[in-house]
Structure formats: C-alpha cells, structure tokens
Fold these 4 entries.
Entry 1:
Amino acid sequence: MDSIVVFSPASVANVTCGFDVLGFCLDHVGDKIIVSKSNTPGVHIASVSGFRVPVNPKQNVASVAVEALLRDYPTSTGFEIEIEKGIKPGSGLGSSAASACGAVFAVNLLLGSPFSRRDLIKYALEGESLASGERHADNLAPVILGGFTLVRSIDEIDIIELPSPEDLIVSVVHPKIELKTSYARAILKKEVLLRDAVRQWANVGALVSALYTQDYRLLSRSLQDFVIEPTRSMLIPEFDALKHEAISSGALGFGISGSGPAVFALSQGQKTAQSVLQSMSKALDPLDLDFDCYISSINQQGVRVI
C-alpha cells in the first residue's frame, strides 16, 4: 500500500469518577486521516480541513506522534498526512487523541504493522502531551483499542480493556465554545482531601465491577465525581441544569466529557438516551449558544480503515 484512509473516533475520557484513567470510544463522530508514502523523507502535514489545527509538523499532534514511532522504526520512506477534522479542538471529545491515534495507526499499517495496537498508545502519547502539556492516555486507549478502557499505568503502558453492556448508550451535548485542555487542567486543585479520594477510588472500583456484571444500579451509584467536577463544572454553561435534566429524564449518570465543555450522560437503552438528549438540549435553549448533540453506542472497534 502507498496510501491508506482511516477513521479515528471521538472519545469520552474520565467517565465522571475516573480522572485520567477511564475512557470509552464513540461511534460516528471522528477524524478522517489520509496517510501517503512520500519520496521526501520525514513527516509532513499536507492539508487540514474541518477545523483549524497547526500544519507545522512540529506543532501538530499527528505528525509528532508519527515522528515518535519512526524513532523506534527508522525508514527512508517519508509520509504525508491529510487530516479532515470531524472533532472540534477544545471540545472535550478527544480531538487531539483522534488525530494522533489515526496517524500512528495508518503509518503502522503502511510499514507492514511492526507494532501492535497497544504499542501504538506509547507513540500517540507524544502527540497528546503536545496538546495538553501532560501525558495521559484516557482518550488514546479507547480510540486505539475500542470500547471501555482503564489506564493502570503509562510509565510502562498497562491498559485494561473493560466490557460494555450492549444496551449502554451515551448522549452527548457539546456547547460550541473552546475549552483548552491545558487550561482545564491548570485550574484543578493540586491536593485532594483524603475522604474525597477514598470516595473517588471506591466509585472507580464499583464502576469497573458494574461493567463486568452489567449491574446498572451499581453503575448509576458509581457515576459521582468528588474531585474534578466541582471545579471544572464552573467552566460549562448551564452545567447544573444539564445534569438535572439528564438525571430527571432517566440517565444512569452524568459527567463532563474529558475537560469539557462537552457533557455526557449514560443510559440503559436507546429510547431513554434519546429522551435524555432532548432534555439536555432544552437546558441550553435559553442561551444564545450553538451546540451539537450526539447519541452513540460504545464503539468496540476504535480506529479503523475505511
């Protein structure tokens, strides 16, 4: 192959209680990445469309991630990357992760797949670090592996793939304001009260158990955030109203997607998820603010060739 086209999906990170460790993959919304071999050595960004991101290869997460891969697999072949952005940067839906994951996934295939999917997370981390200022894989892991994932460690990549109940559906509302991940991380408290930490890791453990046992009541009780949400929710328009509408309409739980401003609600079944989405949309109607809405099952495949 001299060229390949991949779809790299959006993702929801943190999943309310699992800051920097939990995430899951969405359907339908994502970036289209086209990578072609080139006689010119190095990695080049040929074009970007959809949303504005840097074309300088030293400042683009896709090319930075590929450069990291090529340091471990030197080749005289060059690569040109075309990015059709379907995920708005600063949305909280893993825009930088989608581009980084899509690029390394495509280049790995063009090289004959010398690396496993899990190996690719290490290289995509370099792009994500550029975007947010810190290394975290809670978006990257589900995009590469699909489904729900738990990041136990990134010092030595250790990712646990978690099951997803078939009728677990996510409703997403994305207010069209930009919220940089670096800023949303900078405002977080540097210290956490022990009682809040205990409640938080108890919820993470319970959520993992709920996914394995398909215990929706336990899942619902687990979707509480005592550490991050109290601070970040202040950055999101009508956060309390959105949360109230989601829960009142039957959602199992509600939270900030990544660093926001997108928010998500998990529901059992498509019908409930649709009702939840309509109710959340109404909460933003009084504002002079554009927003996007999505309903998705948990995407089990992750990044894929199209």
Note: The two ends are 14 Å apart (CA to CA).
Entry 2:
Amino acid sequence: MSVKYIPVQWNPNKWVYDAVLIVMMVIYLWVFLMLAPDRLDHERVINPQINAMRAFGSCAFLMLTVILCLGPLARLDRRFLPLVYNRRHFGVLTLIVALSHLAFVLDWYYAFSPTAPLEGLLSANTSFTRTLGFPFEMLGLFALVVLFVMAVTSHDFWLKFLTPRIWKRLHFLIYPAYAAVVGHVALGALQDQTNMVFAAVTLVSACLVGGLHLAAVILDKPAPAASGDWVSVAAVESFEDGRAKIVELGDGERAAVFRMGRDLAAISNACAHQNGPLGEGRIIDGCVTCPWHGFQYRLFDGRSPEPFTEKVPTYGLRMHNGMVELNRVANPPGTPTDPISLPEDVA
C-alpha cells in the first residue's frame, strides 16, 4: 500500500527477492568470466575486455527474458505470482547490468577515439540499408533507452502524473525493446560465433517469451461477455475461497468475482495503482490484494482500508439456475454492495 507517492514499504520478502537476484547475477557473471572463456569458440581470439562486455550483455538479455516470462507464467500458474510482485526491482537491476555492458563497449572500442565515445558509437556504422552489417548498436541503444525510461518512471509520481492508462502504454515499449535486443544479439555477437550454443540460447529465449504469451492468451481466457446487462460468470460451486473468477465485460473492461468465506462479491479487475490484475491476487487479512504491489481493497465496497484512499468500482451479483451472474454496469468507485451467499449444499 502507499500514502502519497511512497510505492510499497520494504519487507523481508523484498530483501530476499533482491538478494536472490543479485546472487544469481553474480554467479552467472563469475561462471562466464572465469570458467566459460576456454569453452567458447570464436572466429577471432577475444580479450578479457570483450569477454566482459559479452558476459554483461548476455546476462542482461537473459534477465530481460525472465522478466517477460514472469507475467504469462503467473497467469498460467498462480504459484509464480510472488515473482511478479517485485518485478520492477528486477527491471532496475537489468538496467544496471545493461549499462555495465555499454560501459565496457565504450571503454574498449572508443576509449582512444578522437571523437567522444558515445558520438563514435552513433556514427561508426550507418549502413541502415544492409542486413548483414546493419548497425546493430542502434538496436541495443534503443532497448537501453526503453529500460532507462521504465526504470525512472517506476515511481508512483509518474503513475499519478501520466495517468495509469498512459503509464501502462509507455511500459508496453518493453516488447519492441526485447525484439530490438534479439536483433542486437543476432546481428552482433552471433556473427562472431562458431559455437551454436549462443545462437540456440537466443532462439529458445525468443520462442519462450512469444510462446508463453501466446499460451496465456489462449489458455487464460476470462468468461466471455454476453448480451444484456447480466453476464454469466461461473457455476456456483466452482468458486475457491479467497480467489476470484475474472469475467470479460467488453471494451477491454473486466471484473473480478471473489469468494470470501460463504459470500461472493465483485470489484473491478484493474487496481487503482497501476491497473494491476486484482483477479489474479487473493484475499489477505480480509482485503483483495493486488498481486503486483500489494495494494488492498475491501471486497464489499472497493475501498482501501484507512488511512489509504484508493478505491475501485463494484458490481452487483445474482444467482440464476446454478450460475453466478454479474451486472455489467459498474457502480461508482467505492460504492458498497450487498454480497450474495452460497447455498448450504456448496462446500
């Protein structure tokens, strides 16, 4: 939860999350720098500086791959949700690793250039009309700029200033950035490889990101919208205590129908913080808890517990022929609603 522009307070889970990330990053870099050089084949002998830039570059690429896999994995299996909670930390660490890669590149290739290192990087290759020989450096710089923009706008101030819709669209740039990174690797480092391991890792990573997102779209479909004001959600007996069913309302809107004990109630699926998917979260301490950053809302009125002021729309529910139905017309944010109770014969 947050007051004013303080996003989420630190807790032991965050410290563990960040510690694990840093340890895994250090292990990867150590293996690449200390153990891998003698086992990697190159057309030309590479020195420690080039090996270091490739270590940091490949590490940033794999970290970005994992970040983009977490979202669809969490949609397909709720056990991955804890890994999504602090994903912004993962992104900032990825930016730091990518900047280290750029620092090694500039220090080795442009340290003694008569022009400034960054200017030399931008002007050394301008063959934009070629495939082989294309200035892959520009692709890497584009991805780096996107990572930087996402990192500096991760603070809640920018969410409030830009509005959640614009903020979220801005952060969708991560997908063209990832495509640019794949092109950067394919047209850059892979051109100097005789060992197919790097090429295979790049291909598998790109296919994994695309495949998981496609699987999430196909397999994690919400209940379809129907005509009229009332939308069928799911069978009465199918609701799991503390969890939600997500229903499509049309025009990109979704609602989340939660079960809390013997009661069912519905709120908007979009968190007021960063439009996080409330329906993928669960009820903790009596409140629906967003899986992204922990913002909470009371189920029966869509309001955050005091002293917090966030609120989301609520929806009316009814039971009809053994099905739970939802009124697609949303109540104003923070409007109290009467829950419906499960029949006595439902466990």
Note: The radius of gyration is 24 Å.
Entry 3:
Amino acid sequence: MPDSLTPTIPETITVHLGTPDSSAQNVTLTFPDYIKNVASSEIYPTWPEAAIRANIYAQISFALNRVYTEWYRSRGYDFDITSSTQYDQAFVYGRDVFSNISRIVDEIFNNYVVRRGSVEPLFTQFCNGTSVTCQGLSQWGTVDLANRGYTPYEMLQYYYGSDIDIVRNAAVEPFLGSYPGTPFGLGSSGNEVRILQVELNRIADNYPAIPKIAPANGFYRESTAEAVRVFQGIFGLPQTGIVNKATWYQIKYIYVAVKNLAELTSEGLRPSEVEGGFPDQLSNGDYGIFVSYLQYYLNVIAYFNPAVPSGPANGVFGNETEQQVRAFQSFYGLPVNGVVDFRTWTLIQGIYNDIAAGLPADYAGDTAALYPGYILTPGLSNNDVRALQTYLNLIGRTYRDFPEIPVSGYYGTQTENAVRVFQELFGLPVSGLVGAPTWDAISKEYNFIRFGTQRTG
C-alpha cells in the first residue's frame, strides 16, 4: 500500500490474461492504455458521453482498488488484475480502442471515486444491468440516466451513494509494491513500521489474541514484535517477530479482508490510518492537531493530579503548555526540558489511559465522559458511540439547522454528518472522525447546554 495520504496512479499495470490460477500470459501496459482497452471492451462508444464518463470513472476506480489493496500480489500472484469478468473487468489484449473513449480516458484517467472520509479508491462494482445485475453501477442503466439529464457524478451518486467524492488529478508514479524490500524488526523505525502497526491494530479487532500496539508511532519496539509473533503464530508463519516479505503480505491480505477494502461495502481506510504519526517532538511555538491532543491529555491529568497545572486547549504550544509539560516531567521522573519527545509523549498517553481505565463506568454521572482514547470512526458500534450520539442529539435539539440523530450505538452516515456539521460550526478540522479535540469540544458543549457549565478551559 502506498505511503502517501492520496493514492497515486500507477504508471503501468500488469494484467493476467485469464482467471487467477490459470497458466495464462501476463502483459504490462500503461494505466491509461489499460483503461482504454477495458472501456472499449465493456461499453459502447455510441452511448451518451455522460454515461461513458460515469462508466470510465467506475472502471478506473475498480482497477486502482485492485492495485492499491494489492489484492492479487498479497496472495502471491505476480500481477495486479485479471482479464476475467468473473473476477475483474473485461480486457482484450491487442484490440483496437474507440477514438472518443481514448479521448475521454486521456482526460480523466487520473481521477477516481472514493467514499467520503476514506482514502482508498472505492471498489466500484458494476455489471451490465440486463443479463447480470449487482449492487453497484448498471452499465445500461447509465444510458437511461444520461438521457434523463444526469451528470456523470450524479450517476455515480445514484449507484454508490451520496457520500462519494472524486479525487482529481492524482499524481502518476511507478508502483513498486508496498513491501520495503528488506526484512525489519526490533530497532527499526519509519513509515513502514507505522503502517504495520496500524494494520495489526485493526486486525486485532477481529483477532483479539493479537495485542494492540500503543502508540502506533513508527518505532519498532517489543510491543510491536510481540504483536507480529502472535500474528505469525495465528496464520502459520515462523514466529520470529521479524517482518519479512511473507509476513508483510499476509498482514496486507488479512487487513484488506477484515476491512472489506475490496468490497463495495468497504469499512474504508480513514485518514487517521495513513497520515503521519506523532512528530519527533513538540515544543514551544508548535501548533496543530497533535498539540490539541497533548493539551487535552495534560488537562485531564491535571484534573486528577494537582502537581500538574491546567492549561489552555487551543492547539498552540505556548508558555502555559510548556509549564504543564515541565511539571509533568518533574513529577514522573523525566528530564525537565519542556519538550515533548517520544518518551514524554508515550508516558503522557500511558498516564491518561490509566486514568480513563481506572474510572468506574458511571464516574461521570450525567456529564459527558472522558475521551475513550481512540478515534471514533464510521462503522463502529459500541457504548462510546452511544455516548457520542447522546451528546450530539442534545446539541442537535439546541442549534437550528443542526441534525438530530438517533442514539443507536452505531456510527453510521447520520452520526458522521452530525460530527461534520459540529466540526464546521465550532472551527475544527472537518473529517467526520472523533478524536480527542472533537470529543472535548462536543463534551463541553453538551455540558454547557445541559448544566450551564463553562465551555472553555
């Protein structure tokens, strides 16, 4: 899987000319030439241009999903996609392509469909809509919609839902596969380690014997090695704690499976799963989302530990935040320099998590609870989501044009939309995800509406 937040377009794609296990030939060609061939094989050049464009968007996104999830390569194959419509989309090696289709592909080959709030190209399932029907796009159905005046984007929304976006003008780069090239283990660090940690943590939701790695920050320490060893044991690999190519791609394979990334009903890759980890250090003068997390954690610790003063929660690392850090470092036996390095950050998170875990279930009474310590994302179903919905529901009954939502415990589209509206209204980054800063702001607003308590601080 690529390291960047926005997937790139591969310069080339390798197609297996048959079903996956057949002994057919592999051919490698440029990605635009592949899409031109597929579009000329799947649809008719005489269709309305809007219908042609909608279908090409779907074909591009389908192929990119196969490349980005390494669907076949993680299973040990040496190709990216097949020519079999039983598994993928039609490709006829050596065929001529239609000139109008070629022109459209040249214009939009580096645009693709994503589910809003997700990163990976959407698995845009489609079928002809006559002899074969499916949950996704109907190819012949797009002709009818085009004749009714639908735009290509409206057609894609019609079939894949209103919560989709089109990524435009993505960069074109060689796709070399996600495996770093050499085995790595204890003492390693970097983005490949962080990706590994994020993926193992998600797999652990389905395989709870695998210990969670906290924090997933790109440093390969014993907690990561233990998670790797347990994973290797579950899936029949030598339990070395070292990530070689076989382990790397087995993790990819299971990760894609548990998140349904290659299905239309994909759980989705959230930006929080692929964005950069905690910076090397935070110090006076820094600002941004990680400072907001730092301030939230420190203020909670300060509430329970009078040796640590309370401070602002404004996302700016100023003198007051530095004083909090120094007091924390002094109390917990760290070098007192006011700089949050890896060691300080890890201990702050650990103390916060210990506080949250040690509180009784009903400690908050009727007021909002502490942030649960992980990012709440669409697809979750638990009591933390139920609490979030309770807070948002009251806020929704107070603010005009703010959506009221059901308190179901399931983080679906209505909850995500409400979070987005709240984030926009209160000047937070609009992601639809609930991390510590968003939870804190929602909690304060809920407490203010219900009890008249102070919003700030």
Note: The chain has a mean pLDDT of 86.
Entry 4:
Amino acid sequence: MIYNYVAPCHFGLEKTLTFEIKKIGGENVRAENGRVFFSGGAEVCAKANVFLRTAERVCVVLGQFRATTFDELFEGIRTLPLSEFIGKTDKFPNNGHSLNSKLASIPAIQKIVKKAMAVNLGKAYGMVVMPESGAECRIRFSLMKDTFTLMLDTSGQGLHKRGYRRDSNTAPIRETLAAGIVDIARVRAGDTVCDPFCGSGTLLIESAMKALDIAPGLKRRFDGEHMKFLTESVWITAREEARSLIKKDGEFRAVGFDIDKECVELTAANAKIAGVDEYITVERRDIRDFVCPDGALKILTNPPYGERMLEISEAREIYKTMGERLLPLNGNQLYAITPDEEFENIFGAKADKNRKLYNGMMMCRLYSYFR
C-alpha cells in the first residue's frame, strides 16, 4: 500500500530534506515553502522518522481539498478513508493553522474537524459515540489559500527531540536546523569540526552523528508505533538498518569552546547521552583567546545574537573579535548563522555564499566561507 506523506522543515532547508527523503526511498518528492511532500509504503514512514535529520515531523496526508465554507470543510472530511488509519477506540485531537484563507478561526475549524471526523469514524465502525479511550492519533491541519490539508502525525514529539539534549543554554539552536547546517557544510567522517560558541553542543553533536551515520531517531519512540497501518516489523527493520550503518571506526573529531562553564559541562553531558563523547573535546575559553586547533577545520557556529542574548553592540563586538581571531582562514571553512545583516562588515570579510534560514521565527543568514 502506498501512502502520501508530508514533512515540515525550517524554511531554507527544503532542498536538504528533499535529498534526505529520496535517499530513504521516498517517491514523488515535491517541496513547498517549509514542507516536503512524498509517497511510499509503510516502511518509508518508519524510515523517515528514524533517519531524517532536518524534518520536524512526518505526517500522513489523509486528504486535501478546497474549503471556503464550514459546510465544504465538513463534507470534505466526512468522505475521507479515516478508518484505514484511526482505530475505533483511538483518540483524535486536532490542531493546525490557517493562512490567507476565508476560514480563519482556528477554534471554529478545530470544532468542525472534530465533528466531521467523529461522524466519519462513527459510520465506519457502526458507533454513535466514539469512545476515544485508546492510543492517541494526533491530527494536524493546514488551510493555505483555501486549500485544506488533513494530516495524521506519526512522529508525536517533534523530530528535533533526539533525546540527548535534556537541558539547554539561553539561546539554543534547534537540532534539525543544526543538522541542516551540518549538511550544508558537508561534514564527513574524516573531518574536524570546531564551534567557538558551543552552548549546549548541538552543532558538535549533530556533526558527529552525521559523520558517523548515527540515525537521529534511533533511540526514541514515535506515535506511529501504535497506529494500525504501521506494523511492528517496519519499525524493527528501520532500526536494524540504522544500527548496521553506524561507522564505529570513524576518524571524525570535534572541538568546542565556550566562555560559560555551565555550557562546557552541558555540552560534555549531552555528548555522552548522544553516545558521541569520545569524539568531542570541549573546554572553557573566551573567543578573545581562541586559537585554531591543528589541522584543517570546519568551523560551525551560532554566535550570540543581539536580539536574544546581548545588546546588539555587545554581539557586534564579538563578531569583530571573531574576525580578528579567525581570519585569515588559512584553508579552514567557516559557517556562521546570525540574524545580523551587518555580520560580514563587522567580521571583516565577505562570505563566499550566504543563504536565508529561519531559526524558529527569526530570519537569519548562514554566512559560508570556504576558500
């Protein structure tokens, strides 16, 4: 049986996610702003949850149709084959968003979605009232330019929750965005990665996991493991494949620095939970005292943002010091993400490439120096 799926991602990472999905066997791959549609069997759904590094979650597309009135919305949902995915005792809470559409009230849309799904499932199972006493099937919807999409979330907690980051520093970078930066930097098994502002260690840990082919979802559970259309065998197979691909003799190493003692301790603790602590060295050091470790480096960093952690002037003083300590790169590569449009001028060098990425709702740029 072939199903249609959609995986949301950070704006700017659609191309990276498209490549990931094709690699695990997804077909009919189509990217839109902030999400990628694809199709495949049940095994593709399990592999997507276990293997995808830049997806925020994996959802089954239950249906998509035009809805400009609540009657159209109700009738569209009432005819969908929901019982193929949702059991007669399953809970089915729903949430979503509306953008540039005639139906704009989220509470009102939620109410109609719930009512229409209850009528649909009640007819399929011969029940007047749905008990909703079993497993939870989280329903998500989007209404964009009057096109309604109903989705079943197979992930549960967002896929950025790998399980290794129990705590974080003041302004962490999400694991999925960090993985996207790691992919853009083309981190490989023989590389040395350095982060002079390591925070909770996310960029270092995601680099190690990518270099060693450790699947990001290997150690966590998913809502889809309780869904009727996904058998236990597809999850077992996906995890077995993931374990078989891990590189146990990689030459990769990572070095992290931070001025904050708690961040240094946090990075070390998170790396241990992730199982990559033997590849990562971390120590307390101010950027003013930064000295490049020996060998060719890929420097991946999320330096302090004026909007979130420091006053803009203080953040820019750090960017200036970065330039003084890191330039010339002498064969090293640098990938720095920041929302400050003046970064290049303050740092002291024009990037070879910069691309727009979003860190949450904050528009940033990834400045790449690789020559």
Note: Residues 268 and 282 are 7 Å apart (CA to CA).
